[in-house]
Amino acid sequence: MSEAVNIPDPLKRKGIIFVLSAPSGTGKSTICQSLRQSPDFSFIVSHTTRAARSGETHGEDYTFVSEEEFVSKIDAGFFLEHAHVHGLRYGTPKQDVIDRINEGKDVVLDIDVEGARQIRALKDPEIQDALIDIFILPPSMDELEKRLRKRGTESDEQIRVRLNTALQEIPVWNQYRYTLVSESMEEDLSKMRAIIKAERYRTTRLLEA
Ligand code: 5GP
Fold it and tell me: Which residues of the chain have pLDDT under 50?
């Protein structure tokens, strides 16, 4: 019994763009950092006009650019999406994302709700097929405030601004494909991994043998 039949190679598939949005304080950065440590994710370095914080490296954490440079890159069509977040500009380099998904690598993008909206609105079928967007909701506003206070990195005023921003961000959760209501970090990571795993097995991602 040796008839030829084509079995696709599960290791040869198209890459996925996981877009993760969540209000500040839900634990999104920790989740992203944890996922990116795994070798099956490629890290895309965003551009920003904000100054580097101590410990951050240019080209690794972000590509830090001036306002002029950022605007000229917008004009040149350099970004997949770009947005103002807390009064500063952030953007994802388009070609880096396209190169990675063509290599069959998955990327995780930690971007705000405006950036996610722009990616959803793109007409490019290659991007839409690859796109999986996920929103992480806090269990309640009280719990979000508690978490922001507990981490102790923001002043009362900054906490107030972040809670106000969260009130603007939360109502768009239903535009995302997946929604998680945050529990413990372990629970959240385990739910994220379940989504990632299932998405990797989708038939449409496999390439014909
Ligand atoms: P931070 O300055 O604390 O590193 O990031 C602030 C916020 O900017 C994060 O919550 C993240 O969602 C958002 N952000 C980071 N990179 C990008 C990006 O490339 N595009 C967009 N739209 N938002 C980003």
Answer: none
